[in-house]
What we know:
The chain has helices spanning about 20-30, 75-85; strands spanning about 10-15, 35-40, 40-45, 50-55, 70-75, 95-100, 100-110, 115-120. It has a four-stranded mixed beta sheet, covered by helices on one side. The longest helix is centred in the N-terminal third of the chain and has 11 residues, at about 20-30. It is built from two helices and eight strands. It has a single domain, classed as Roll (2,3-Dihydroxybiphenyl 1,2-Dioxygenase, domain 1).
Amino acid sequence: xxxxxxxxxxxxxxxxxxxxxxxxxxxxxxxxxxxxxxxxxxxxxxxxxxxxxxxxxxxxxxxxxxxxxxxxxxxxxxxxxxxxxxxxxxxxxxxxxxxxxxxxxxxxxxxxxxxxxxxxx
Length: 121
């Protein structure tokens, strides 16, 4: 019997950006992601088991909604919320219960991509 092919792991999520320097500073300096490299118009950031790539070639999302949301898992939503708020991140909504004991809140990056933090209170 032959094995059925399937995709099983996401390795890279790419976001289009309008200004690489501004976006790189936001993700590295404000959010604290580790820069793992830059090559050919891409900036690669370590985000746990996934690489987040910023791409000038893809361009920013058009319109008010991009249809994409990047969710960061955190150990304590309130703590992460306060830490990011202290760095100037403006949240769209207050941290709240979203499923059982799990909390979430979200904000936007410089290009309008929706980013969330999710985890226990």
